Amino acid sequence: QVQLVESGGGLVQAGGSLRLSCAASELTFSNYIMGWFRQAPGKEREFVAGISGWHGNTYYADSAKGRFTISRDNAKKTVSLQMDSLKPEDTGVYYCAAAARIRRGISSVTDYDFWGQGTQVTVSS
């Protein structure tokens, strides 16, 4: 089984930065596409950023591009999300997720097989 453990969430003022981390306890970590999603109260879970397993190709939601950076370290079995220039609308629970295969698209919630517990990010104005 794959276990994903997130850390780094917290409270920050608009314009500030946070770095989220996700650690996987699985020997085949490099086989998975990794993604970050977020969910605001009363809203659907939405894709934020993704990164491929072997080549490190990155993908971003329009709302994240230019402000967020996703990266992975296959040796350490971690994936990170550096968030800069944070806005109040970035507030939500952020989830780390792993997909063995992408069927519909990297932004599709249903393509992901494993999920972390979520970490709260709150951006004050």
Task: Describe, in plain words, how this protein is organized in 3D.
The protein is mainly beta. The protein is 0% helix and 47% strand. The strands form two sheets. Strands 2, 4, 5, 6, 9, 10 and 11 form a seven-stranded mixed beta sheet that branches. The radius of gyration is 13 Å and the shape is globular. The termini are far apart. The model has no long low-confidence stretch (mean pLDDT 96).
What can be said about this structure in brief?
The protein is an all-beta fold. The protein has strands at residues 4-7, 10-13, 18-24, 33-39, 46-51, 58-60, 68-73, 78-83, 92-99, 114-115, 119-124.
- The helix/strand order is EEEEEEEEEEE
Mean pLDDT score: 96
Largest sheet: 7 strands, mixed
Rg of Cα set = 13 Å
Query: How many extended strands?
Result: 11
**Shape summary:** globular
Count up the helices: 0
What portion of the residues fall into strands of 2 or more residues?
over 45%
Classify the secondary structure makeup into a structural class: mainly beta
Outline the fold blueprint.
Layout: E1 4-7, E2 10-13, E3 18-24, E4 33-39, E5 46-51, E6 58-60, E7 68-73, E8 78-83, E9 92-99, E10 114-115, E11 119-124
Parallel strand pairs: 2-11
Antiparallel strand pairs: 1-3, 3-8, 4-5, 4-9, 5-6, 7-8, 9-10, 9-11
List keywords for this structure.
4-stranded antiparallel β-sheet; globular; mainly beta; 125 residues
